[in-house]
Amino acid sequence: MSKWYIEKGDQGDVVLSTRIRLARNLDDFAFPAKLDTAGRNNVNSLIKSVLFENDAKDFSYIEMKDLSRLQAVSLAERHLISPEFATKKDGSALVLSADESVSIMLCEEDHIRLQVMKAGLALEEAFDIADKLDNMLSSKLNYAFDERIGYLTQCPTNLGTAMRASVMLHLPALTRCGQMAR
Which site from 5, 43, 91, 172 is most exposed, i.e. has the minimal number of CB atoms within 10 Å? Predict the structure, then answer.
């Protein structure tokens, strides 16, 4: 199976990749920073059971404590996990699709950090996949949500939709002209 980062997507000469990221927390648990290892493992087990109850054969479940430092850094370099998550061990896990286009970090900064990566410009396609996974999870899990401020996240900058949409661009002319810093 081909990995998303080997593909050349729409407008691939300028847009290298698209990412949709959703942050979610479970209502019945403290944020991961306030949980001990047993609490984080409990959260991970709950989320894992929902993700894999429908025979999710395209996904693998990886406990961060089972990875070497080199393996974790490799995942971060491919933008499948955050650099901070690469240093996590006990009580953190990763759910990864076979083509590595979907990665779900469990007990990173939030209980769930779901991200979908696509080659080129593919905002709608990436959002559709993230939305379907989020809907499947929310149908079985009770998310921390406030009617006034939206999804509750550890970092206040993620409140609301708790979604980030981004594209990585290749802009060689800015570097050549000395304008990249500006």
Answer: 172
- Helices 123-138 & 37-52 angle (0-180, nearest 10): 110
CA distance 106 to 51: 12
Tell me if residue 61 falls in helix, strand or coil.
strand
Using CB atoms within 10 Å of the CB of residue 150, give its burial: 0 to 12 exposed, 13 to 18 middle, 19+ buried.
middle
Distance CA 69, CA 71 (A): 6
pLDDT tens-digit map of 122-167 = 889 999 999 999 999 999 999 999 999 999 999 888 888 888 888 7
| Cα–Cα distance, 43 to 20 (Å, whole number) | 23
Strands (DSSP E) contained in 25-155 are 59-63, 93-97, 102-106, 112-119, 145-146, 150-151
| pTM given for the model | 0.86
